[in-house]
Write a structure and sequence with these properties.
- The complex is a heterodimer of chains A (about 425) and B (about 280).
- With about 425 residues, chain A is mostly helical.
- Chain A contains 15 helices and two strands.
- Chain A has two domains: about 290 residues, ABC transporter involved in vitamin B12 uptake, BtuC (Orthogonal Bundle); about 70 residues.
- Chain B is about 30% helix and about 25% strand.
- Chain B is built from eight helices and twelve strands.
- Chain B starts with about 30 loop residues before the first strand and ends in a 14-residue tail after the last helix.
- With about 280 residues, chain B is α/β, with parallel strands linked by helices.
- Chain B is globular and about 55 Å long.
- In chain B, β1 and β2 form a beta hairpin.
- The longest helix of chain B has 16 residues.
- The chains are: A mainly alpha (about 425), B alpha/beta (about 280).
- The interface between A and B is large, with 50 and 53 residues.
Chain lengths: ~425, ~280
């Protein structure tokens, strides 16, 4: 129990002794596996899924299907990222699915011929609607200290009601379709081949540069850093992902005419991912959200305006749900009065499959991205194999449970954050 | 854009780093007639206490004697109902934890002060992060954390990027104390610092308290453990049923008289009992 303590008198350690006891490359690998960024088990799981579907259906890895898959995962990713803001606090939003629908509905109705508002007012208003819903929840959860589970459950019912009311009021028979080109093009439109290349090249380049620079600075200041070999492996992985994206999006995916380039939805996902990750890892606000999720009382006693950052997290959830709503609407070409009720649960599942904790204080934006891809892969692969939706549900359940189990087992004994 | 690390001076503040108590001038902290009521319940009555710099003042007393009420008043969890707090001879008003930390009062709570899901550096700087162009300056924080820990002779942690949840009780206490003294603190209040610690971990924490004192900081220790108190304190203040019944240099007391004071509020073995207004 006390084996980790030196019992010898506390001599003055040199600076290099504190926090510099080297971490061996093997330990590094183990940390990578176990650590808070422990995405490796789930990535292996994803590879297994992909190999299985590919072996059963040659269509799976066609550019057309993979692009479709990327767009399908968009919704899960975005809603998962929305959910993570609250999961980090130990809160939850059970209404992201319907709120995303409401947000899309606002943009759709405002841009249709009846109102004919410009898209650059209507779409932000759609996003603001979702933020308003989240702000409303925030009032009850933060000010009145009600459990978010119940508040957002009530919200789910209320928003569902609003959705039905507004759709029915249009008198277009249970659904409203998108009439605005820009809104439609979020999913239906795409970058040119050159723009796709440039976007991916610049994104990968910037990310690699940031990783290397951060690590080199740590080495320079004599801090614990990752060995250059592991950095190199990461960069190579990054470049491979980038090249794969270019290959998928820039292949012609139509049988009749030329259809190539990255759908606009993809860079939107990446931008939301970058924004969320930036706030969570580089700013005080992000640090405080983790702190509140870990120990709200400690955060309060450290002088952090706890409620302000809780509100921020709620609004970020709303914002992300709003963006998801635009893409959801675009993908479906409209909004019907019955939103798939499993959407919210998939959003939570995406975050949790990636490794975010439901108990607060632990999670990253990238978790929802990976989790979203896993869910979409199952969804997509099963559909290709014409499996019954009964099977789809059960397999997704299995993956969710397996992911959480592996995560829990791997995390035992994990100590190092990076 | 890279900057070489600025040479850090000792990050531990405090006057002159000498272990000698200043004999003249006002004490660092003086309480005069402090009372605290919660509705009809009076938890603390008319407490007078001086806390000198460079010394360890132990506040002892039974459960419910008002020890926690007293330190929560000093550290800004709540304000006193009546009475005055003097900081270096000047009257101050402490209404929030922020007020206290702005003055230079740092409180280490028993187990409420750390976030297990954050690493040591993140905990050390929680609420006062160093930023560069508005973004967290991790490198500077990490270097300063290592410096502080090494100043305090804390050598048992493997990495300052370890999650606090993975530390032992003694290490957690060390991190909490290091965090408290890191920012210009002149008075450090430790609430039951050795409760629930093993023998060697307790020794480490007591060593740490000595280090704080030798840096010239004032230390208030709340403890149930009399052997720890006698090992580390320069002065003792005994609380009994919400009043401060006795106060003086440690040499006036022995274990028997301290126990007597704690349990009955009076002792025939010690001279000049503090006048109370009961």
């Amino acid at each position: 129990m006390s084996s980790d303590l030196t019992t010898e008198p506390l001599s003055e350690p040199s600076l290099s002794e504190v926090g510099l006891q080297g971490v061996s490359p093997f330990q590094q690998l183990k940390n990578l596996w176990k650590g808070d960024s422990g995405l490796i088990p789930i990535i292996i799981g994803l590879v297994v899924l992909v190999v299985y579907f590919q072996s059963r259906s040659s269509e799976f890895d066609s550019a057309q299907n993979l692009t479709n898959l990327a767009v399908q995962s968009s919704i899960f990713m975005l809603l998962g990222m929305a959910e993570i803001w609250l999961l980090l606090l130990g809160e939850i939003d059970l209404s992201v699915g319907v709120t995303c629908g409401l947000s899309g509905l606002v943009s759709t109705i405002l841009t249709d011929p009846q109102y004919h508002w410009s898209w650059f007012i209507a779409m932000p208003l759609g996003v603001l609607t979702a933020m308003g819903v989240s702000g409303f929840y925030a009032f009850f959860v933060i000010k009145l200290r009600l459990p978010s589970f119940i508040v957002t459950l009530a919200g789910f019912l209320a928003v569902q009601g609003l959705l039905i009311y507004f759709v029915d009021k249009q008198g277009t028979g249970g659904s409203v379709s998108v009439q605005e080109a820009v809104l439609y093009d979020l999913v239906g439109g795409q970058f040119t081949v050159l723009a796709t290349w440039l976007t991916i090249f610049i994104s990968v380049g910037l990310l690699a540069l940031m990783l290397i620079r951060g690590n080199e600075r740590r080495i320079k200041h004599g801090l614990v850093a990752q060995p250059r070999s592991i950095m190199l492996a990461k960069i190579i992985g990054l470049v491979l992902v980038g090249l794969a994206m270019v290959w998928v999006f820039n292949s012609n995916r139509s049988n009749f005419l030329v259809l190539e380039g990255m759908p606009f939805a993809i860079p939107i996902d990446l931008a939301i991912l970058a924004l969320g990750t930036f706030i969570l890892t580089k700013t005080r606000a992000g640090r405080y959200i983790y702190a509140i999720g870990g120990n709200a009382e400690a955060a309060r006693r450290s002088g952090i305006a706890v409620n302000r950052y809780r509100l921020l997290a709620f609004l970020m959830t709303g914002f992300t749900v709003g963006v998801a709503g635009q893409i959801y609407t675009s993908r479906l070409g409209g909004i019907s009065d019955s939103i798939d009720s499993t959407l919210t649960l998939y959003a939570v599942a995406a975050a949790v499959i990636g490794g975010t904790s439901l108990y607060g204080g632990r999670g990253k934006m990238i978790h929802a991205v990976i989790g979203g891809i896993v869910i979409a892969t199952i969804y997509n692969g099963m559909a290709l194999l014409s499996m019954a939706s009964a099977t789809q549900y059960i397999v997704t359940a299995g993956v969710l449970l397996a992911a959480v189990t592996i995560d829990q087992l791997a995390r035992r004994g994990s100590t190092v954050l990076r | 854009m890279d900057t070489t690390p600025e040479p850090f001076e000792s990050v531990i503040a405090g006057p002159q780093g000498s272990g000698v108590a200043p004999s003249d001038g006002p004490p660092l902290l003086s309480l005069r007639g402090i009372s605290k009521s919660f509705g009809a319940v009076q938890a603390m009555r008319h407490v007078d206490l001086d806390v000198p710099a460079g010394q360890v003042t132990a506040i002892i007393g039974d459960n419910g004697a008002g020890k926690s009420t007293l330190i929560k008043t000093i550290s800004g969890i709540w304000a006193q109902s009546s009475g005055h707090i003097l900081w270096k001879g000047q009257e101050v008003h402490i209404h929030t934890p922020r007020d206290a930390s702005d003055l230079g009062i740092a409180t280490v709570y028993q187990d409420l002060s750390l976030c297990d899901n954050l690493d040591i550096v993140q905990n050390m700087y929680l609420g006062r992060e160093t930023t560069k162009k508005g973004l967290l300056n991790e490198i500077e924080m990490e270097i300063a954390t290592r410096k502080t820990l090494s100043d305090l002779s804390v050598s048992t942690v493997k990495s300052v990027r370890q999650l606090v949840g993975s530390l032992s009780g003694g290490q957690r206490q060390a991190v909490a104390v290091a965090r408290a003294v890191m920012r210009e603190s002149e008075l450090v209040i430790l609430d039951e610092p050795t409760a629930a610690l093993g023998v060697s971990q307790t020794a480490q924490v007591l060593e740490l308290i000595h280090t704080l004192k030798s840096h010239g900081l004032a230390v208030i220790v709340i403890s149930h453990n009399l052997s720890d108190v006698f090992a580390v304190a320069d002065r003792i203040a005994v609380m009994y049923l919400g009043t401060l019944v006795h106060e003086g240099p440690i040499s006036q007391y022995d274990t028997a008289s301290a126990v007597e004071l704690i349990t009955t509020g009076r002792s025939s073995r010690v001279p000049n009992t503090v006048a109370t207004s009961v």
